Amino acid sequence: MAESRTGATSAAQIDTPAAREGGFSLRTTVFGADELRRAQTRIAHEIVERNHGADDVVLVGLHLRGPEIAQRLADTIESFEPVRVPVGALDVAFHRDDIGLRHVHPLGRTEVPVDITGRVVVIVDDVLFTGRTIRAAMDALVDFGRPQSVQLAVLVDRGHRELPIRADYVGKNLPTSRREQVQVRLAEADGVDEVVIEG
Predict the structure, then answer these.
(1) Going residue by residue through the chain (199 aa), what tens digit of pLDDT does each one get?
(2) How far apart are CA 5 and CA 46, in angstroms?
(3) Which residues, at least 6 apart from 156, have a Cβ–Cβ distance to it below 8 Å?
(4) How far is 4 from 98, CA to CA, in rounded Å?
(5) How many whole angstroms separate alpha carbon 170 and alpha carbon 168?
(6) Rounded to whole angstroms, how far apart are CA atoms 43 and 126?
(7) How many CB atoms are closer than 10 A to CB 29?
(8) What pTM was estimated for this model as a whole?
(9) Beta carbons of 68 and 1 less than 8 angstroms apart
(10) pLDDT tens digits for range 125-174
């Protein structure tokens, strides 16, 4: 996940060290595999509709789960449009505004396969939280050209924005508390498709 998810719905107690010491943690499934697929399909259609096709669209996923989501969106678009949308991946670790406040941990390779100048770049992330990771992503994109426009697609918008950033495409708006964690798990990396809240 690109942003820190720290800081929210069937609930079940899970086995953790805290639980075994007398505490407990609640785990709530927000999306199952079918809901996740439907959200991705809807977002793909909305991207094409808003941009009057997909010829000039580039999808750039933010590590950790963004590249897999971007690839899924590209596959879905290709299923109903005669175009293969380029897919890239972006690690924004060295562009964050808190780089002097914490250790920097690169999350993955940055690969943008085309010149984005004059293109519509859709940043793809799993969870939108404070907005600081998206600001960092926009800073990082200038290394690859000057896009015509930049849009944002996320599976979950959990609120708590600290910057004036909002998503153009949202799978689900999910009110949370800052104490809760939103986890997106994908089959490619985690063996299961689901979105859960732990807190």
Answers:
(1) 444 443 333 333 343 444 334 455 688 999 999 999 999 999 999 999 999 999 999 999 999 899 999 999 999 999 999 999 999 999 998 766 666 666 667 778 999 999 999 999 999 999 999 999 999 999 999 999 999 999 999 999 999 999 999 999 999 999 999 999 999 999 999 999 999 999 8
(2) 26
(3) 30, 126, 127, 128, 170, 171, 172, 173, 174, 182, 184, 195
(4) 12
(5) 7
(6) 13
(7) 14
(8) 0.85
(9) no
(10) 999 999 999 999 999 999 999 999 999 999 999 999 999 999 999 999 99
Domains, the chain: 10-198 (3.40.50.2020)
What tokens were used for 17? 């060290």
Copy the structure tokens of residue 97. 């505004």
- The amino acid occupying position 61 is G
Token pair listed for 70? 């971007």
Q: Which two tokens stand for residue 105?
A: 């941990």
Residue position matching structure tokens 């991207």: 47
Orientation of helix 33-50 relative to helix 66-80, angle to 10°: 60
Distance between CA atoms of residues 96 and 112, nearest Å: 19
